[in-house]
Every structure is written in structure tokens, then in C-alpha cells.
Amino acid sequence: MGIVVDFSTLAATSQCSTQAGLRYALGYTTRDEHAALRAGSAAHAALAVFLKGESATRAAGKFTDEYEAYAETIPATDRLAYPNLHAIMLDWFERNPLLKLPFAVEKVEVQFRIPLADGIIYTGVCDGLGYSKQNGRPVVIEHKTTGRITSYWLRKWQQHAQLTGYYFAAIAEFGRDQPIGVYVNAIEFSQLPTSTRTCREHATTYDECGTLHAKHGLYFYGRGPEQVEEFKTNAISLAVTFAHISQLLAGDPQNVQFLPQQGRFNGHCQFCQFVDFCDAGRPVHRIESMLVRSPWKPIQDVS
């Protein structure tokens, strides 16, 4: 068996075989999911420019290059509309100069390719690697965009395997100098207020103070050796499961109808982009009209 997986593939496999098969084996998504992914990808590209030492203007320009044309069809009132997200990103750049960050950036967009077991490669991209300004120890930097930063959303990263996977990759990068954890750079992609009503907090109209309502923050999450070992064990098991899903669908895409739907047991269906497709009975003959073709490819293929 030879297979390359990333965290998104493994996470989907852990949630529902049908979701993993549709998204990562057959390469489909939904229109709404595609827009959110494009917005997040554009934000990552702009943040990479900024962390390399470029100005806020240059970084915001990168976001424009990556997202403006794509977002032309998104309604102006949508939170993912280009003007709204551009204002949020520019606000982040202006409020977070490199000198004020709690870490010094050493590398940006670090690709990794790590063997988990014979024939299984774990791959991905660390948004950044650097050193804590407090104690000089290595840290991982991970950017996250979300519709809403809540206490629940922040709490989920305390044990989240995605951060553990990046920590695992960073160990190989730093060698003996073990990283101490991961900084999550959280940016909320919510709709900024733009009305002419008066804001009680800022004593001006919302169309003047809109960006002051932008929400973002840096949050630190520690990791340790025991979490890395558990991550490796679970990742290998999930990779094997995904390999079987891929083999089944490679034989005939119609076989998606025979994949398990664990989401109906663990409650994941309410969060899954394919819920309408599954509710319709997983009609493969209508897949092109219900879903968007967007093949998912790990950053590196098996050599």
C-alpha cells in the first residue's frame, strides 16, 4: 500500500466514510464550502507575505490578488464578500506589526513529508515556524479563519490533532530543540457592521467604526510527546481506512452509495457540506449538478 494523506483527509475519515470518499477520493465539494476555502486560502497567502517582512499594504494587496476576482459573484451583504474580508485582513496587518508578535518568525509555509508507517506518508504545510521571544524555544505558527471566534471554538484546539500533527512535523524540522507548542492566529471572518446607526461602544456610526469590531487574537496551545505518539497511532489507522475507501471508489464511483455514514451516529451530519446530497439518497447520477468538482491533492505525491 502506498498512500499520501494530510490532516483534512484523516479528519474527514474519522467523521464519516461518505464525506471522506466524496471530498478526498472523488474530489467534490459544495459551492458554499468552496467560497470559504478560497477565502481562507487567500488569507493564508497574504499572511505569508506579511510574515516574510512585507508591508501591510503589500500583504493586503496579495489578498486582493488571490480573492477579489473570485468573489465577484458573492453578494455584498455576505460575510465572505471581498470588501468585508479585505477590511478585516488590512486591520489585522495594521494591528499586528512583526515587532509586537510574541514570536520571531524563522520560516514561512514549511512543507513537510513524513513517513508514518510503511507506505503511508503524512504531508502538509506549517504556516510558520519560529522562536518564542519570551524563552527562545521553537514554536509552530498556525493561521485559522472562522466565521466566529467563540470560547467553544478556542477550547477545541486544546487537544486538536491538527495542531499535534504540525507539532509532530516541527520536531523533525527543529531536531533536538523540541518545540514547546503552537500559536494559533485566529481571525474572525464575520460581517463587519456598516450601517449609519450609532455605535454605543465607539460613539460614532457603524460605517465609521466598522473595522474596530474586527475580532482576532493569538492563542498558545502546548503539546507533549504522549500526544504525538497518540497522533501517530490514530493517523496510521485512519490512513489505512481511507486507502480502502479510495480503492472502493476507484473501482466504481457508484460505490459511494455503499460507504458507511457514521455521521448519522456521531452527529457530524449537521456540520457536513454533503448533508443535502446524502438526504437525497446519494444520487451519483446527479452529483455534477449538486456538487462542485474540486479535486483535493496532497502537496506532494508518493515517490
Secondary structure blueprint with pairings:
Layout: E1 3-5, H1 7-15, H2 17-25, E2 28-29, H3 31-51, H4 56-67, H5 82-95, E3 103-117, E4 120-132, E5 138-146, H6 151-155, H7 161-174, E6 181-188, E7 198-199, E8 204-205, H8 206-209, E9 216-222, H9 225-251, H10 263-266, H11 275-279, H12 287-290, E10 292-293
Parallel strand pairs: 1-4, 5-6
Antiparallel strand pairs: 2-10, 3-4, 4-5, 6-9, 7-8
Helix pairs in contact: 1-2, 1-9, 2-9, 3-4, 4-5, 7-9
Average of per-residue pLDDT values: 92
- Distance linking N and C termini: 13 Å
Low-confidence stretches: none
Broad shape: globular
Helix content: 40-55%
* Derived structural class: alpha+beta
Strand residue content? 15-25%
What's the CATH architecture name of the largest domain? Answer: Alpha-Beta Complex
**Major sheet characteristics:** 6 strands, mixed
Order of helices and strands: EHHEHHHEEEHHEEEHEHHHHE
Total strands: the figure is 10
What is the overall number of helices? 12
What CATH calls the topology of the largest domain is Lambda Exonuclease, Chain A
Whole-angstrom Rg? 21 Å
Number of domains: 2
Using the coordinates above, name the CATH class of the largest domain: Alpha Beta
Can you walk me through this structure?
- The protein has 303 residues and is an alpha+beta fold.
- It folds into two domains: 3-33 and 233-293, no CATH class; 37-231, Lambda Exonuclease, Chain A (Alpha-Beta Complex).
- The protein contains twelve helices and ten strands.
- 31% of the residues are buried.
- The strands form three sheets. Strands 1, 3, 4, 5, 6 and 9 form a six-stranded mixed sheet that branches. A two-stranded antiparallel ribbon has the order 2-10.
